[in-house]
Amino acid sequence: MINRVVLIGRLTKDVEVRYTQSGVAVGTFSLAVNRQFTNASGEREADFINAVIWRKAAENFANFTHKGALVAIEGRLQTRNYEDGNGKRVYVTEVVADNFSLLEKKSDSQQSAPESQAPDPFASQGNKPIDIDPNDLPF
Known about the structure:
By secondary structure, this protein is mostly beta strands. The chain has helices at about 55-65, 105-110; strands spanning about 5-10, 15-20, 25-40, 45-55, 70-85, 90-100. The chain has two helices and six strands.
C-alpha cells in the first residue's frame, strides 16, 4: 500500500506553530493549489488543502515562509476524528508533511508578501561608492 502526497502551492496565511504539553512543535497551515483546468467561465480554481508539520521541521517551515510563499510539501494523507464541545463527531482530513522545499528566492517571495521591508543599505546608490571605514570591518 502507498500513501504519499506531493503538493505545490502557496501558503494562505503564515504557519501557526504551537507546542504540545511535552514541548513538541506542531505547525498548521493551508496551501492553495491551482487546479490543472479552468471552469466554465474560463477561470482557474484552486483547492485549499490543510496540512500539519511536526518538530524541528515545523519551526523551520514557520521561520522561512510566510503568507503567499510558493512551497512544495511531501507527506501522507491522514484522516482523524474527535468529538467537539457539543458532542458532535468531527472528521478532519489533512496532509502530514514530513519534508518541504522553498520554491522561490527570498527576494521573490518577499515581493508577494504585503509586509513593508526596511530599505537595503547596500542596494545600488546610483554608482556612488559606499563609504565604509576600514576600522569598522570585522576582518
